[in-house]
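Form P-L/3: holo structure prediction, ligand adenine.
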Amino acid sequence: MLSTGQAAGLSNGVKVISFDILSIFPEMFSSPLHFSLLKKAQEKGIINISLHDIRNWADDKHKMTDDAPYGGGCGMVMKLEPVEKALSAIRKKNREDSTVILMTPQGEVFNQKIAAEISEKKRVIIICGRYEGIDERIREHLVDREISIGDYILTGGELAAMVLIDAVSRLLPGFLGNPESKIGESFSRNILEYPQYTRPANYKGWKVPDVLLSGNHAKIELWRKTESFRRTYKKRPDLLKKLKLSAEDKKILDKIKKGQI
Ligand code: ADE
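OUTPUT (holo model):
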């Protein structure tokens, strides 16, 4: 088992999550999890990631984790016993409550709300499916939640698990240097973020909007709100249906729709 970080639950009063990943390719995780904020979060002990190779729980001499489907058909099926044994071993070592997630295209489609729900857990065990499918008894008896990261088929659940870990981890207190940076962001409020700029103010004639250089905070705030609405209306109008708008917000949106601003 490859492991990083510290114990699950609370560390010095700080919320910590432990992720156990079950995969036949645990090495796939080494590089993406060891850069930038995910690396720092493991060093700080905010997240703890343990990688488990399912093959270690395969009994036969070839360490088989797949087999042909009963009833015939093409492709191979992920075997039940190695996954069940791996889960038992992880649970025996760590007695706290855990949630078992299966990454699969058949699952509920991942979003910010699900990320927030998972961020409340102490221990998350993720099974990365492979092959044409998994033995249905894994789903029936061992899994609490099935999650897909979108309506397309990946070669396995590993990349999907990385997406989930990234989105969940950044919600933990202390993960982001500036806790405010996740408050105003898209999807936590069902609205896209306003455009951002940094220096230089003019590059080859491509200019930063004057209002952002004005120093007038009320005007800047109104501009940002208007641009957030404009973006959401243009790019993700579906999100607007979920928004609770004040009378003032409705007026702004109405003007955008009519092309008045
Ligand atoms: N495994 C293969 N495709 C997947 C997807 N879209 N989401 C989660 N796990 C997967």
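COMMENT: The first helix runs from residue 36 to 44.
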